[in-house]
Structure prediction request, 358 residues.
Amino acid sequence: MQPTPSSSSCGDWLSGAIRRIEADYQRSADTHLIPLPLPALAARGIDLYLKDESTHPTGSLKHRLARSLFLYALCNGWVREGTTIVEASSGSTAVSEAYFARLLGLPFIAVMPRSTSPEKVAQIAFYGARCHFVDHAAQVYDEARALAERSGGHYMDQFTYAERATDWRGNNNIAESMFQQMAHERHPVPTWIVVGAGTGGTSATIGRYLRFRCHDTQVCVADPEGSVFSAYHRSGDTTLTAPGSRIEGIGRPRVEPSFVRTLVDRMLEVPNLDSVAAMHALSALLGRKVGPSTGTNFVGMLAVAHEMRAAGQQGSILSLLCDAGERYLPSYHDADWVRNAFGDIAPAQQRIDALMAG
Ligand SMILES: *Cc1c(COP(=O)(O)O)cnc(C)c1O
Prediction:
């Protein structure tokens, strides 16, 4: 249920709120595009880059989404002074929204699976927000909606609104920024952009921007084991469900409205062991730890690089460093935890090493 309509003119609080978000944006710097040092691939004319979304104030690409969702809700008249914001999240979005809720002085409740990393939970609490846990990822939606109704608040609903709250034509969105940063590279127009899908918002924004600018770049979504998106991409059946992903931030148990199938050229199903092995290999390559969804992205990049090599094709491949590994030190970056959760990763490590060696 949406709140009753408010006046369309900018009341004092509304104009102040929008100004505060815009000022926060003005104080922020763009994120870096990092070239990956992979000499064997470079020698074949294939260059890999990661846009480092971990450097946002709230540590992930969800900083962009949270800003857009707040502006969208404010400009729609859905949020006003004192409105409680409720969100369903696997953690990263809640961290970023908690930051913006604090900026605007609004109460915030994050509805998350109990398995969400304690580091994210601590960060949400740090911003003064409340965490509300459910046992399974598939329960977050109904629980968040019900909580919003009970509290007279607003359910932000990233999984519905991510694709439409973002300015896909430009406004220095993630895609426009990537193309500007590639301007002086030897292959400035990427052959592939590889991303994961949680809401699907990032793949939708990039896919639309590519069409709008008539770029000859293909979008590949690297989808973790247990996610519904790959099967949905094949069939178009929105009623499909899946067990859900074990890679935090990406892969969903249901078909999210924000995942726009027609904007994705290709899906790649990535086994969890490969994601985790690639996360470790990439962390070693960069000298800093990355999160598990970035590992999934790296598997996708290496797979398309391998195909390009086999076809004698040269070009660049771009992807995202979605968040840093520090959020996952006791889990995906702990050898015992990984063995218990996923089993022996040695064979996957060998596969990744071989792909990196070109
Ligand atoms: C949300 C998220 C993604 C996927 O981005 P979407 O735009 O929601 O599809 C990838 N990695 C992490 C860590 C995320 O939090």
Remarks:
- The beta strands are 33-35, 46-52, 85-88, 108-113, 130-134, 154-155, 192-195, 218-224, 266-270, 315-321.
- The pocket of pyridoxal-5'-phosphate is lined by residues 60-62, 92, 162, 196-202, 249-250, 291, 293, 322-323 (CB under 6 Å).
- The chain is about 45% helix and 15% strand.
- The mean pLDDT is 95.
